Amino acid sequence: MRIELNHVMPYPLPKEVIQSSDVWNTKLCFKPNSANLVSAKSGMGKSTLLHLLYGMRKDFSGILSIDGKDSSTLSRKDWIKIRKTSISLLFQDLRLFPHLTALENINLIPVTNPNAPVVEEMAEQLGITAFLHQSVVTLSHGQRQRVALVRALSKPFQLLLLDEPFSHLDEVNQNKASSLIKRLVQINGASLILSTLGSVPEIPFEQTYSL
Protein backbone atom coordinates (compact mmCIF):
# COMPACT_ATOMS: atom_id res chain seq x y z
CA MET A 1 0.00 0.00 0.00
CA ARG A 2 1.37 3.39 -1.04
CA ILE A 3 0.58 6.38 1.18
CA GLU A 4 1.36 9.91 -0.01
CA LEU A 5 1.07 13.13 1.98
CA ASN A 6 1.07 16.37 0.02
CA HIS A 7 1.38 19.31 2.43
CA VAL A 8 -0.94 17.70 4.97
CA MET A 9 -1.48 19.87 8.06
CA PRO A 10 -3.78 18.83 10.93
CA TYR A 11 -5.83 21.76 12.16
CA PRO A 12 -5.34 21.17 15.92
CA LEU A 13 -1.52 21.31 15.88
CA PRO A 14 0.29 24.60 16.60
CA LYS A 15 2.19 26.18 13.70
CA GLU A 16 5.54 25.86 15.49
CA VAL A 17 5.04 22.07 15.70
CA ILE A 18 4.23 21.81 12.00
CA GLN A 19 7.17 23.99 10.95
CA SER A 20 9.75 21.72 12.61
CA SER A 21 8.27 18.44 11.35
CA ASP A 22 9.58 15.95 8.77
CA VAL A 23 5.98 14.94 8.05
CA TRP A 24 3.61 17.90 8.26
CA ASN A 25 3.35 20.45 5.44
CA THR A 26 5.74 18.58 3.18
CA LYS A 27 5.67 15.99 0.41
CA LEU A 28 6.14 12.51 1.78
CA CYS A 29 5.61 8.96 0.55
CA PHE A 30 5.36 5.84 2.68
CA LYS A 31 6.29 3.24 0.07
CA PRO A 32 4.86 -0.28 -0.19
CA ASN A 33 6.71 -2.95 1.80
CA SER A 34 8.60 -0.36 3.83
CA ALA A 35 9.22 -0.05 7.58
CA ASN A 36 8.91 3.50 8.88
CA LEU A 37 9.57 4.91 12.35
CA VAL A 38 7.86 8.12 13.49
CA SER A 39 9.52 9.55 16.59
CA ALA A 40 8.52 12.56 18.67
CA LYS A 41 7.74 13.88 22.10
CA SER A 42 4.18 13.77 23.43
CA GLY A 43 1.76 16.21 21.84
CA MET A 44 3.55 16.43 18.49
CA GLY A 45 0.91 14.55 16.49
CA LYS A 46 2.00 10.90 16.37
CA SER A 47 -1.47 9.57 17.12
CA THR A 48 -2.99 12.25 14.89
CA LEU A 49 -0.93 10.98 11.95
CA LEU A 50 -1.98 7.36 12.44
CA HIS A 51 -5.63 8.34 12.90
CA LEU A 52 -5.51 10.31 9.63
CA LEU A 53 -4.05 7.29 7.83
CA TYR A 54 -6.79 5.10 9.34
CA GLY A 55 -9.50 7.46 8.11
CA MET A 56 -10.70 8.35 11.60
CA ARG A 57 -9.96 12.05 11.26
CA LYS A 58 -10.55 14.42 8.40
CA ASP A 59 -9.61 17.70 10.13
CA PHE A 60 -6.60 18.52 7.97
CA SER A 61 -5.61 20.52 4.92
CA GLY A 62 -3.55 19.18 2.03
CA ILE A 63 -3.96 15.88 0.21
CA LEU A 64 -3.64 12.39 1.67
CA SER A 65 -3.59 9.70 -1.04
CA ILE A 66 -3.94 5.94 -0.66
CA ASP A 67 -2.69 3.96 -3.64
CA GLY A 68 -3.06 7.10 -5.75
CA LYS A 69 -6.61 7.92 -4.63
CA ASP A 70 -7.38 11.14 -2.75
CA SER A 71 -8.70 10.08 0.66
CA SER A 72 -11.21 12.95 0.65
CA THR A 73 -13.11 11.15 -2.13
CA LEU A 74 -13.48 7.94 -0.12
CA SER A 75 -16.93 7.22 1.29
CA ARG A 76 -17.68 5.78 4.71
CA LYS A 77 -18.28 2.42 3.02
CA ASP A 78 -14.89 2.68 1.29
CA TRP A 79 -13.15 3.28 4.61
CA ILE A 80 -14.95 0.38 6.28
CA LYS A 81 -13.72 -1.93 3.53
CA ILE A 82 -10.16 -0.58 3.75
CA ARG A 83 -10.05 -1.04 7.52
CA LYS A 84 -11.50 -4.53 7.23
CA THR A 85 -9.11 -5.78 4.56
CA SER A 86 -6.06 -3.55 4.22
CA ILE A 87 -5.13 -1.47 7.30
CA SER A 88 -4.71 -2.57 10.89
CA LEU A 89 -4.15 -0.15 13.78
CA LEU A 90 -2.94 -0.71 17.32
CA PHE A 91 -4.31 2.26 19.23
CA GLN A 92 -2.20 3.95 21.88
CA ASP A 93 -5.10 3.59 24.33
CA LEU A 94 -5.61 -0.02 23.13
CA ARG A 95 -9.45 0.19 22.79
CA LEU A 96 -10.11 -3.07 24.62
CA PHE A 97 -13.43 -3.96 26.26
CA PRO A 98 -12.46 -4.39 29.94
CA HIS A 99 -15.16 -6.88 30.96
CA LEU A 100 -14.59 -9.22 28.01
CA THR A 101 -11.82 -11.78 28.16
CA ALA A 102 -8.57 -11.26 26.28
CA LEU A 103 -9.58 -13.90 23.73
CA GLU A 104 -13.03 -12.37 23.26
CA ASN A 105 -11.41 -9.00 22.56
CA ILE A 106 -9.10 -10.55 19.98
CA ASN A 107 -11.97 -12.41 18.30
CA LEU A 108 -13.99 -9.21 17.82
CA ILE A 109 -12.17 -8.48 14.57
CA PRO A 110 -14.58 -8.92 11.63
CA VAL A 111 -12.15 -10.71 9.30
CA THR A 112 -9.17 -12.83 10.29
CA ASN A 113 -5.86 -12.84 8.46
CA PRO A 114 -5.38 -16.17 6.64
CA ASN A 115 -1.61 -15.60 6.62
CA ALA A 116 -1.31 -15.02 10.37
CA PRO A 117 -0.38 -17.70 12.89
CA VAL A 118 -3.28 -18.83 15.03
CA VAL A 119 -4.07 -16.61 18.00
CA GLU A 120 -2.81 -19.20 20.46
CA GLU A 121 0.58 -19.33 18.73
CA MET A 122 0.98 -15.54 18.85
CA ALA A 123 -0.19 -15.47 22.47
CA GLU A 124 2.39 -18.12 23.32
CA GLN A 125 5.18 -16.10 21.69
CA LEU A 126 4.16 -13.00 23.66
CA GLY A 127 3.72 -14.87 26.94
CA ILE A 128 0.00 -14.22 27.44
CA THR A 129 -1.47 -17.70 26.94
CA ALA A 130 -2.35 -18.01 30.62
CA PHE A 131 -4.39 -14.80 30.46
CA LEU A 132 -6.50 -15.45 27.34
CA HIS A 133 -9.60 -16.42 29.33
CA GLN A 134 -9.29 -13.68 31.94
CA SER A 135 -11.27 -10.45 31.81
CA VAL A 136 -9.11 -7.63 30.48
CA VAL A 137 -9.94 -5.54 33.55
CA THR A 138 -7.84 -7.97 35.63
CA LEU A 139 -4.74 -7.67 33.41
CA SER A 140 -1.74 -5.38 33.79
CA HIS A 141 -1.06 -2.62 31.25
CA GLY A 142 1.70 -4.70 29.68
CA GLN A 143 -0.55 -7.74 29.33
CA ARG A 144 -3.30 -5.60 27.80
CA GLN A 145 -0.85 -4.11 25.32
CA ARG A 146 0.16 -7.57 24.15
CA VAL A 147 -3.51 -8.61 23.81
CA ALA A 148 -4.17 -5.55 21.64
CA LEU A 149 -1.10 -6.34 19.53
CA VAL A 150 -2.31 -9.90 18.87
CA ARG A 151 -5.67 -8.48 17.82
CA ALA A 152 -4.03 -6.02 15.41
CA LEU A 153 -1.83 -8.74 13.90
CA SER A 154 -4.79 -11.12 13.51
CA LYS A 155 -6.41 -8.85 10.90
CA PRO A 156 -5.55 -8.81 7.21
CA PHE A 157 -3.33 -5.83 6.43
CA GLN A 158 -1.21 -4.25 3.75
CA LEU A 159 -0.42 -1.41 6.14
CA LEU A 160 0.22 -1.92 9.86
CA LEU A 161 -0.05 1.16 12.09
CA LEU A 162 1.36 0.79 15.61
CA ASP A 163 0.93 3.66 18.05
CA GLU A 164 3.58 3.36 20.79
CA PRO A 165 3.26 -0.46 20.92
CA PHE A 166 6.02 -0.96 23.52
CA SER A 167 5.16 1.76 26.04
CA HIS A 168 4.25 -0.71 28.81
CA LEU A 169 6.68 -3.53 27.94
CA ASP A 170 10.04 -4.38 29.46
CA GLU A 171 13.02 -5.12 27.23
CA VAL A 172 12.41 -8.88 27.09
CA ASN A 173 8.78 -8.45 26.02
CA GLN A 174 9.70 -5.63 23.63
CA ASN A 175 12.04 -8.00 21.82
CA LYS A 176 9.40 -10.75 21.68
CA ALA A 177 6.85 -8.30 20.29
CA SER A 178 9.34 -6.88 17.78
CA SER A 179 10.12 -10.36 16.49
CA LEU A 180 6.42 -11.15 15.99
CA ILE A 181 5.76 -7.81 14.29
CA LYS A 182 8.66 -8.32 11.85
CA ARG A 183 7.43 -11.82 11.06
CA LEU A 184 3.85 -10.75 10.34
CA VAL A 185 4.87 -7.72 8.28
CA GLN A 186 7.09 -9.98 6.18
CA ILE A 187 4.42 -12.68 5.80
CA ASN A 188 1.90 -10.09 4.60
CA GLY A 189 4.34 -8.20 2.38
CA ALA A 190 3.06 -5.13 4.21
CA SER A 191 4.23 -1.66 5.14
CA LEU A 192 4.79 -0.69 8.77
CA ILE A 193 4.44 2.74 10.36
CA LEU A 194 5.37 2.69 14.04
CA SER A 195 5.25 5.70 16.35
CA THR A 196 7.36 5.95 19.47
CA LEU A 197 8.54 8.27 22.20
CA GLY A 198 11.87 6.43 22.38
CA SER A 199 14.03 3.77 20.78
CA VAL A 200 12.61 0.60 19.26
CA PRO A 201 14.52 -2.68 19.58
CA GLU A 202 15.14 -5.26 16.90
CA ILE A 203 13.22 -3.69 14.00
CA PRO A 204 15.21 -2.38 11.01
CA PHE A 205 13.55 0.77 9.66
CA GLU A 206 14.19 2.08 6.15
CA GLN A 207 13.05 5.57 7.13
CA THR A 208 12.87 7.51 10.39
CA TYR A 209 10.80 10.68 10.66
CA SER A 210 10.70 13.27 13.40
CA LEU A 211 7.48 15.11 14.18
What's the gist of this structure?
With 211 residues, the chain is an alpha/beta fold. The chain has 7 helices and 9 strands.
Question: What can you see in these coordinates?
Answer:
With 211 residues, this protein is α/β, with parallel strands linked by helices. It has one domain: Rossmann fold, CATH 3.40.50. Helix content is 32%, strand content 21%. It contains seven helices and nine strands; from the N terminus they run βαββαββαβαααβαββ. It has helices at residues 15-19, 46-53, 76-85, 102-106, 119-126, 141-154, 171-188, and strands at 3-10, 27-30, 35-39, 60-66, 69-70, 87-90, 159-163, 191-196, 207-210. It has a five-stranded parallel beta sheet with strand order 6-7-8-3-9, with helices on both faces. A four-stranded antiparallel beta sheet has the order 2-1-4-5, with helices on one face. A hairpin with a 2-residue loop joins strand 4 (60-66) and strand 5. Helix 5 (119-126) packs antiparallel against helix 6 (141-154). The longest helix is centred in the C-terminal third of the chain and has 18 residues, at 171-188. The chain is globular. It starts with a strand and ends with a strand. The mean pLDDT is 93.
Which features does this protein show?
211 residues, alpha/beta, Rossmann fold, five-stranded parallel β-sheet, four-stranded antiparallel β-sheet, globular
